[in-house]
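Project standup — Tuesday

K.O.: blocked on the structure for the chain from last sprint. Re-posting the sequence here as requested.
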Amino acid sequence: MSDLAQTVDKSKSQLDGFVSWIKGHERIILLVTVALQMVLLVSMIVISAAPLVLGDSILVRVQPVDPRDLFRGDYVILGYEFSRVPQKGVEGLSDVSNSRQEEWAGRTVYVTLVPEPDGKHWRSDKFSINMPNGGKFLRGSIGRFGRIEYGIESYFVQEGQGKKYEEAIGSRRLSAEIAVTSDGQAALRRLVIE
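H.V.: unblocked you, prediction finished:
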């Protein structure tokens, strides 16, 4: 028998042994697979809920996004003064021209927050690609058309409640209570009409 034939027979024997082992452990393999999927789903929920549990609550003012289409279904589209790349740019990124903004898509941006004079609300102070050493800040990602997304841009409302939120946005009386962790991750707690 040639070396090639012996190698093929050995490989076939190993494959048969592996298939036999899998058949003998089907139940355990299935349970482990289901358990891993459950762990993955639970970890995704825990990660997204972390700011709500661990974060500090702050108020930020909501700005109109598009007065013709604020609502789609039963959720509100929210915009903030820190939702766009500012004209002065982002510290650490050169050139603020629109042509470069497409290159920045997906880039992480940190927005330092400072209290407003009313003592209740917070506003943006500085945009940078470097994480601040302290203080309150948001971690976002540059999206299309110079928008910065933080994961707090939409909020589901109770059916029939959309009109009052639409009016509050139009009259600039709507604030968002957001939870912010020490690493800048944000989650929307609720909307506040003032």
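K.O.: great, moving the ticket to review. The beta strands are 56-61, 71-72, 75-77, 108-115, 121-128, 137-142, 148-149, 154-156, 174-180, 186-193. The helical segments are 3-24, 26-54, 98-101, 162-170.
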